[in-house]
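User: Please fill in residues for this 146-position structure.
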């Protein structure tokens, strides 16, 4: 009974603040405040507040919350250790074994500090097979040193 009264008062106060905010011609903020202020009365009307009241005094429910908290700590802890070690076992194995990257095997590393243009390379002979559809793109990328 008290929880329903408090939620109703909070909703009424929030709607009052929304009206004042709308009077100041801040309609977006007023709509957001009105949305937040309708949540407590909605929770009362759906019965969630009554369920929470019953749950708050149940030792079994508190034990369940403790188990959920322990599970969350386990998840967070394992994720932190995984980040510190550098990923999952498969990711570490791929990194050690020289896994395939996004860069072509024959590509050189780009230089960040030099302001000179790359040296002119002789053009590679073009492949005439029908399977090599990307030869034009490769030539353009090689021209730009990528």
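Assistant: Residues filled in for all 146 positions:
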């Amino acid at each position: 009974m008290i929880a329903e009264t408090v939620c109703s008062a909070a909703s009424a106060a929030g709607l009052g603040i929304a009206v004042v905010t709308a009077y100041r011609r801040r309609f977006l903020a007023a709509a957001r405040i009105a949305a937040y202020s309708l949540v407590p009365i909605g929770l009362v009307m759906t019965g969630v507040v009554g369920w929470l009241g019953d749950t708050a005094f149940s030792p079994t429910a508190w034990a369940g919350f403790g188990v959920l908290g322990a599970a969350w700590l386990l998840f967070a802890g394992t994720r932190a250790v995984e980040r510190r070690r550098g990923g999952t076992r498969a990711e570490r194995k791929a990194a050690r074994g020289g896994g395939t990257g996004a860069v072509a095997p024959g590509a050189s590393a780009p230089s960040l500090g030099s302001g000179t243009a790359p040296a002119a390379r002789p053009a590679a002979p073009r492949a005439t097979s029908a399977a090599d559809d990307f030869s034009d793109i490769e030539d353009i990328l090689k021209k730009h040193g990528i």
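For context: The radius of gyration is 32 Å.
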